[in-house]
Specification:
Largest sheet: 9 strands, mixed
Radius of gyration: 20 Å
Protein name: Glucose-fructose oxidoreductase
Pfam families: GFO_IDH_MocA, GFO_IDH_MocA_C3
Distance between the termini: 43 Å
Organism: Pseudomonas oryzihabitans
Strand content: 15-25%
GO molecular function: nucleotide binding
Number of helices: 11
């Protein structure tokens, strides 16, 4: 049951950078959500971060007690990817709704187990595709859907960051590396813009000399879609901060940058060129995490299924797993065709003011300073 004020009560599971720098401040921008608990294995965060937000703290070992406490309605799950299954399934089985960071899990089988738990209990499951609630992103998707650039044929994207090699993302193999940490952004974008699913995957990866990363730190991916459409994207842990994509249709194109990031001064922006005429568009700076949380809480309160559900999460992980196989084998990987999905709509957009981020407690951003 929601709180006395009608708000959905969240526990934050994992007190790292993304929780402290994005989700926790963003909750305060909503009118339908609040935090009541923190689950962490760090005693400093259990004391100081919990105190900062007035939360009750639990250790990871105490998670079952939290689920039966009556203190929460939902969890925001932001542990390292390999622990998603460990916390998502018990929560869902207990009837606790789950807002789960992407990628959904580290295998298709884990995704299926999480989805099965949601099906058993009826609890809501949403994958944290924050851009599905961001106004500029949804506007671009709707322009393509409405035929403004004609039939979309080609997509290319580059997304790079200088990730600190001491961060766990650089030291935990493929399922924490750039393909799974950053790849969901261009992958999910092209799936929405093409309104279809890839049927073949190829990939080439390299390890940049002098970089201590335990997997390919730069990877180029090519996706073949039905109707002979092509998409490609490159992701890297070893580049300067850059993010952009280009979508080419039969009548025009969209060039977007910034297109994946969030935070202070980051306004999703794009240029639309049709029949040689170019217009520029710049969305307002909004709180992506507050927006997705407000949308998920609305789904819970109104008993509606979120658009970015476990099926959406599995569809991305299916492709990520194929990329891994392509890297290991050097061979293209075929994927079975899937039914099309509706994708994000304007109804999901939440334009909330960007929250101020307080000083971090025993964590830091994963990028080199």
């Amino acid at each position: 049951m929601p709180s006395a004020t009608g708000k959905i009560r969240y526990a934050v599971v994992g007190g790292g950078w993304i929780s402290q720098g994005a989700f926790m401040p963003g909750v305060g921008q909503t009118g339908n959500s609040e935090m009541t608990a923190l689950v962490t294995g760090d005693p400093i965060k259990a004391r100081d971060l919990a105190a900062k937000y007035g939360l009750k703290s639990y250790s990871y070992e105490e998670f079952p007690a939290l689920l039966s406490s009556g203190e929460i309605d939902a969890i925001y799950l932001a542990t390292p990817n390999f622990r998603h299954l460990e916390f998502a399934v018990p929560a869902l089985d207990a009837g606790i709704h789950v807002l789960l960071e992407k990628p959904m899990a580290i295998s298709e089988e884990e995704c299926q187990a999480i989805n099965a738990a949601a099906e058993r209990s009826g609890a809501k499951l949403m994958i944290a595709y924050r851009l599905h609630c961001e106004p500029g992103t949804v506007e671009m998707i709707e322009r393509v859907r409405n035929g403004e650039i004609g039939d979309p044929r080609l997509f290319t994207a580059t997304f790079a960051q200088p990730v600190d090699t001491a961060n766990h993302r650089a030291q935990s193999g493929f399922w924490a590396g750039p393909v799974t940490d950053m790849g969901p952004y261009p992958l999910n974008a092209v799936r929405a813009l093409f309104a279809d699913e890839p049927i073949e995957v190829s990939a080439v990866g390299v390890q940049t000399p002098g970089r201590d990363v335990t997997t390919w730190d730069a990877v180029a991916v090519t996706l073949r879609f039905p109707e002979e459409r092509l998409a490609s994207f490159t992701v890297s842990f070893s580049g300067p901060n850059t993010e952009r994509f280009q979508l080419v249709g039969r009548k025009g194109e969209i060039e977007a940058s910034p297109c994946f990031g969030f935070g202070e001064g980051v306004a999703i922006s794009y240029r639309l060129t049709v029949d040689g005429e170019t217009e520029e568009f710049k969305a307002q700076v909004v709180d992506h995490f507050g927006g997705e949380t407000a949308y998920f809480s609305d789904c819970i309160l109104q008993d509606r299924q979120p658009e970015m559900d476990g099926e959406e999460g599995w569809r991305d992980v299916r492709v990520l797993a194929a990329i891994e196989r392509a890297l290991e084998s050097g061979q293209p990987q075929r994927l079975d065709p899937l039914p099309k999905r509706q994708g994000p709509t304007r109804e999901q957009v939440r334009s909330l003011p960007l929250a101020q981020v307080p000083e971090y407690v025993n964590t830091k951003a994963p990028l080199e300073s």
